[in-house]
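Retro notes (design track)

What went well: tokenization of the new backbones is finally stable.
What didn't: we kept losing track of which sequence belonged to which structure.
Fix going forward: every design gets posted as structure first, then sequence, in one message. First example under the new rule, 138 residues:
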């Protein structure tokens, strides 16, 4: 006998919800895993789906929520991670120009690492530059 139910007897008749919960609890206990309620696996599934990149509309429909807003409100705890992941994936596709590699500060100030005979030009205090208007402390 066909059924749209997840858990049924072999003949298709539904299992009693309390029996399913008791059986699940016993299996969790026997597994040695931390205690978890059967209902918590629903939240875990939705959270993992969202973190994995599933569209919230798909998760909403799978959970049977009447609107995306309910799903969104329920899973706001994972939304910061989703926002970070979305920002990172968006920034990954933004073209960037190749930047010249700048040696670390300690290499630039090391006289042995500079070309022989080369001197670093330091702007005079009156010249325009990044330190314009700044004077050394007395």
């Amino acid at each position: 006998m066909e059924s749209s139910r997840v858990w049924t007897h072999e003949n298709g008749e539904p299992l009693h919800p309390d029996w399913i919960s008791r059986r699940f609890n016993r299996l969790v206990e026997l597994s040695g895993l931390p205690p978890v309620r059967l209902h918590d696996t629903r939240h875990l599934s939705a959270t993992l789906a969202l973190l994995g990149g599933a569209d919230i509309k798909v998760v909403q429909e799978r959970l049977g929520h009447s609107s995306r807003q309910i799903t969104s409100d329920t899973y706001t705890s994972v939304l910061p991670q989703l926002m970070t992941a979305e920002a990172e994936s968006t920034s990954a596709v933004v073209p960037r120009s190749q930047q010249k590699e700048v040696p670390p500060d300690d290499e630039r100030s090391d006289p042995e690492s500079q070309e022989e005979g080369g001197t670093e030009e330091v702007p005079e205090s009156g010249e325009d530059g990044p330190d314009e208007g700044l004077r050394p402390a007395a």
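Added context from the reviewer: The helical segments are 17-31, 38-51, 56-63, 68-74, 79-92, 105-108.
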